[in-house]
Amino acid sequence: MRKTAVIIGAGPGGGAAAIRLLQRGVRDVVLVDKDRFPREKTCGSALSPNGLKMVQALGIGAEVKRLGYVIRSLKIKTPGNREMHLTTDQAAVVLLRKHFDNLLVEQACTLGADFRPGFKATELIREGSRVVGVRSKDEEVRADYVLCADGAHSIFSWDERPKRTISTLMGWWEDFAFEPGTMEMVFDKHLSPLYGWMFPESAERVNIGICMDGEEGGPGARKKTTRNVRDVFDSFLHDHYRDRLRGARQIGKFKGHPISYTTWIKDCTGDGVLYLGEGARITHNATGEGIYQAMQSGVYAADAIADVVGGTASEHKAWRRYLWQNRQRFTFGFAMGHVLRTALKTPLFDAIAVGYNSPTIRRLATWAVGSALAGSHVELAQQPAGGFAEAGPALAETFPHAAANY
Ligand SMILES: Cc1cc2nc3c(=O)[nH]c(=O)nc-3n(C[C@H](O)[C@H](O)[C@H](O)COP(=O)(O)OP(=O)(O)OC[C@H]3O[C@@H](n4cnc5c(N)ncnc54)[C@H](O)[C@@H]3O)c2cc1C
Q1: Considering 68, 173, 194, 338, which has the largest number of Cβ atoms within 10 A of its Cβ?
Q2: According to the model, what pLDDT value does residue 348 have?
């Protein structure tokens, strides 16, 4: 039987698209993934304030807050080894992707999605120029609309431009000492213009990783970096976390995965098909953030299909709007990401850190750095006079489970 929509990939992009389609009343939605869920995904697993607003709209906000670890402040170490401590009232949450992606899939299934794990898509089915379904080795699904949400290694990506990537490597530790509710970003000069991080996943467990440019050389001469990511990670751990790692226990192995990004989102539409998330290179070039971007583009894609199915727009009009929405939502933030990358190669970040003791500069820096990292405008909280501990009561109202950690 022909379905209304088939989505390839049940990461945040595909999961969000499925939920939104069903929320909009579209029926016969199939979600396929090569893996069986819950499955691991190499990721820092941090959901930004924008990501949290999105999960609320998708109906899994309460579960994410119940299972996740709430972050209320960010410690930044500059290339010159100066520190800034940013606190806002817009919480972030770290929730292991194994659990987070599974929540999205469960929500999609509850709303009526037909989820098919173990379906490794190998080919798009075409009738003339139109995409009309997807095939695996031993199964096929035909549908009016196909959404490609198959991530960084997308085999269906239509974007022929050379890939721009961020190389990453990360690991997990227990019994690592950290300030409750605080994540760390270390702008080490060897990773410039990118950074290393420490994200707490629970009161007992953290993940630590690095990201660095996957290519070297200017436009036209760009080639894959020859630097050994493992060596860079070893030096990073030694330089920044040697003492704190002494009593810690590593869980599992180091894992790496590229992040694919772009500044100008290419036309991510085709006859009968939409591309979204990291498969469409929609990630932030300065932070590597991609969970929120995948969910947002998934929601836009679902809205485009729901408009066509509901008869309020032609496919042509809905697809144009889909592309425009993505560009309008992300291009400014991605351009600002490049500004941040450039600034990080100058002493500017260190200068901001030096002035950080002045309340005015502190407010301005919190806004500017926070907005650049979030890829959008950050609203400032009144800084609790006594620091993070005094943010507890307000936090307890919003996140009762996680506030118990403080
Ligand atoms: C080390 C690291 C740390 C990161 N940390 C963060 C972070 O803290 N916060 C953040 O916001 N972002 C982070 N990111 C980026 C984020 O992980 C991705 O941008 C995000 O997962 C993209 O979502 P997606 O749905 O587009 O793709 P994915 O999450 O990659 O999902 C794609 C899905 O498609 C499936 N699939 C692939 N091929 C096929 C096929 N042929 N057939 C069927 N199914 C298929 C896969 O199994 C997968 O489930 C990090 C990335 C890395 C590598």
Answers
A1: 68
A2: 82
